[in-house]
Amino acid sequence: MAGQMTIEIMDDFANGWNEHDVDKIMSHMTQDCEFALSAGPEKWGNRFEGFDNVKAGYQKVLDMFPDGQWAEPKHFIGGDRGVTQWTFRATAADGGKIEVEGCDLFHFDGDKIKVKNSFRKIRS
Prior knowledge:
This protein is an alpha+beta fold. Helix content is 25%, strand content 50%. It has a six-stranded mixed sheet with strand order 2-1-6-5-4-3. β4 and β5 form a beta hairpin. The protein is globular, with a radius of gyration of 14 Å.
């Protein structure tokens, strides 16, 4: 039987993003996981469903921002739901610097992440 989500597990998940280690990130996901990217053609952005598709979606984000960092993550857990707030810093494809705040909304299945729904600010 699966355990319960903890701040320590969420810290390890966040560290996987900052280390650009997609296998570490995926070790915290369920097999039937979902990822909703903040940008995309639909009202929810772009959605990836299933372990392999989510892994490919995560890798796409990591490849798009090879120096990307999700700094100062702050996690909140309430039952089978959670939130992580962060500041995203990276270099854009045109060489410009990105620094925006954002958050992820989570749905947990025990000590694994079933849904990661990402939101981030857009600076103008």
